[in-house]
Structures are given as C-alpha cells and as structure tokens.
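Notes from hallway chat w/ T.B., transcribed later so I don't forget. T.B. wanted the structure written out for a chain they're using in a teaching module, and asked if we could keep both sequence and structure tokens in one place. Agreed to drop them here.
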Amino acid sequence: MHYQGTVYRPPSEANSILLQVTTGCSHNKCTFCGMYKGQRFSLTPDEIVYADIDYAARHFPHARRLFLCDGDALILPQNTLRAILARIREQLPHIDRVGIYANCKSLKAKTVEELEELRHLGLKIAYMGLESGDDRTLAAINKGATAADMVAMASKAKAAGIMLSVTVLLGIAGPDRSSVHAEETGRVLSAIDPEYVGALSLMIEPQTKLHADVLAGDFVVPGPLAILGELRAMIAATNLRNGLFHANHASNYLPIRAKLPEEKAATLDLIDQALVGNLSLRPEFLRAL
C-alpha cells in the first residue's frame, strides 16, 4: 500500500487497515503538535486510493476495521468520501467500522445529512481532538476553534449517529491555569457526551512552538503529581451518560480506564491513592507518544 511521511492512527485502530486518503493536516498550526511539521497537506489521488483498497481486499480480506488517514481526512469532498466508502464496502465486505480523524473545520463543512450518508456507508467513529475546554488555553495553543465550536460540531456528528472519541491533553494549560483547564474541559466533555474520552499527558515535541516556549521560559510543564491532580479534577467535572474515560495512553503517569458514571467514584479514589504515594507512577523514561 502507498504511504507518504509518517502515518498516525489512534491507539484503538492498532489492528485496522490504514488507508491514507490525505497527507498531513489542513490546520497544522497547533503549538504542541509536531506530527505533520514540514509536511504539506494534500489529497491522495483517487487511483492510488482505489489501488490500495484493492490491495487490502487481496491481502486482508477478512479485516473488520479500517482507518482513513491522515490528520484531516473528513475534509475530503462528499463525493470523494462517498466513492471511497462505497469501494471499501464493495471490496472489503467484512469491514464493519471505518474510523476517521475529525476537527471543527471538517465537521463544519459537512451537513448532518451528509454525515448520516457517510455513516450509512460505514463511517462509524470519528476521533476529535478537543485538548481543552478552556477558551484561553485553546487560543494559546492555536487550536483554531472555541469550546462552543467544539460542542456544536461534535453535536453534528452525534446527531448523524457517528460515535465520538474525544482527546484531551493534560498539562497543556500549564500550572497557573490547570484547575480552570480541568474544570472547563470536564464541562465541555459533559456537553458533548462522547462514547469515548482519551486523556494524554503533555510531552514536549522538538521543533514545535511549545518547545520553543519551554526553552524561552515562557511555558512550564506541570510535574507528575500536578498532572495527576488535573486528571482527578477533570474526571470529577465530567458527567457522561454512558462513556469510557481512558487515561491509559503511554504518555500517562497512571493508567486508568473508567466507565462513567458507574466507576467515577472508584476512579477518583484510585487517583487519590496515587497522589498520596500509595500507588507507583509510570517513570519518565517509560512515557511515550
């Protein structure tokens, strides 16, 4: 199959076919992200996409999941996405879930009816990077959207019946705004009410704007206990009707997987045990993105 640059996918898509229908990210301005730096956003030519689908059909005929890469595949025109999903359904009939990254820009470009059409063609889950529910933090990291934008666009996906997995970033507000970031992010997550929440802990990537800010002394990375306290405050402020809150990414200091609301109290107790030193945290050298 054809790939350009480094291909990224969510952890839950580890066993999925990776079909690169775009390269890079159309926004590519977030201060903390180095995933697509120096890479120009482009659409993969149709003939290459179709050739890759045919290749996957020959070599992975019984695969159950497929993920559309890269960072902003939902930005593709509706006709293009429709044709790709139809080809997947035709050539890979065992695929029961197609996933995609989605941001405010790409969701805004689609109507609820268009999203519903994509769901009927197999697009079942969208991964959305919220990072923070605090507007000051979102502006500081150049996310290109407000918390209200995030809620509105997420609501479109949910109205279309597409499952949401929302990513938040612990530590991204720095020490001074940590509590506001945690509480506002919990509030926004509650408003979105996604099926899945994935919390990552901030790791500074070289050659990013945030890396330069750290070197200049303009940003301080919170320590492990501060990150853990932020996670506790965020979960305490998050009310999901029936969702999974994951903080078991390799970047996190304490792996957590909680079903909310049932396991909320037990999860807060677990974090409290870690905060007082009764549970070991993941050492720094084992953390990774």
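Follow-up for T.B.: DSSP finds ten helices and ten strands in the chain. Might be a good example for the class.
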